[in-house]
Amino acid sequence: MTLSVAIPDTSLADCSGLREKTLKVGTIARALAVFRVDTVYIYTSGWLEDSDRRDPILLMRLLQYMDTPQYLRKRVFPHSPSLRYAGMLPPLRTRSHPLNEDNTLEVGEVRWGIQVRPGKIDIGLNELIRYPPTVSEKVPTLFRVEEVSPLHLSELEREDVERYWGFAVEQLQDLIRHLKDSIGVTRIAMSRNAPVYSHLEAGLKSTVSATGNVLVVFGGPHKGVSELFESEKSSLKNNIDFWVNVVPNQGTSSVRLEEAIFAGLALLNNSIGPLVARSGFY
């Protein structure tokens, strides 16, 4: 049971500077977390301008930064010019981001942690925790509390957590190949030229009920999914199960990517959310 989203490497092409790009990524990340997306793919479109060639790296870095709990960010992300406006990013407040006052542990609790030095890890408490096994000093590891006194931790993967635990970020060099290989996944592409969602809802819900997994593909600021893959349009269409318009009769000449993500995921959440996404807060 998974919900994934794919956005192009041109996602920030309509932003004029680092501040605007950072704010846009913050909005995208909030949408992904609100609607319990498990994985966001940044796919190569072939339309990236030379002046924007570093945008995919920035997009991935900021999304990963936002998914990382605050208590680990300084350890995982060294000071970098790309994080100049990180203070303007909104908090995600997923279950993986405990509040500062959450300084006690309970059996079954799950926390991200990182090795600070041999035998010592940081899991967001007032002090480092003894943990003899070696884990990464750069990439957070997920731990479950098995016992509190004495403290005993076990390692697990994000997908093993029962409730929603934030999103992973991955690069995708070949979107069409990924679509072809996505066996047992309902593949949805968003397009303003597609049928409205209400006309497809019954068939889509039936299909998702059988697969339990969904991948939603979005286009970029200046080109939709079909336009981005104009030279491979036939292969693209053969590997998309549903083309959907979630903002019919839009009142603006264009719908921004972050707006499309919010609108599309909100509609899907109300319709098929229980079929593909893990439980959230309420």
Can you describe this structure?
With 282 residues, this protein is α/β, with parallel strands linked by helices. It has two domains: 2-91 and 163-275, SPOUT methyltransferase, trefoil knot domain (Alpha/beta knot), CATH 3.40.1280.10; 109-160. It has eight helices and eleven strands. It has helices at residues 18-34, 55-67, 70-76, 175-181, 197-211, 225-228, 233-238, 257-276; strands at residues 2-8, 39-43, 110-117, 120-122, 129-130, 141-147, 152-156, 168-172, 186-190, 213-217, 242-244. The strands form two sheets. A six-stranded parallel β-sheet has the order 8-2-1-10-9-11, with helices on both faces. Strand 1 (2-8), helix 1 and strand 2 form a beta-alpha-beta unit. Helix 1 (18-34) packs parallel to helix 8 and helix 5 packs across helix 8. The protein starts with a strand and ends in a 6-residue tail after the last helix.
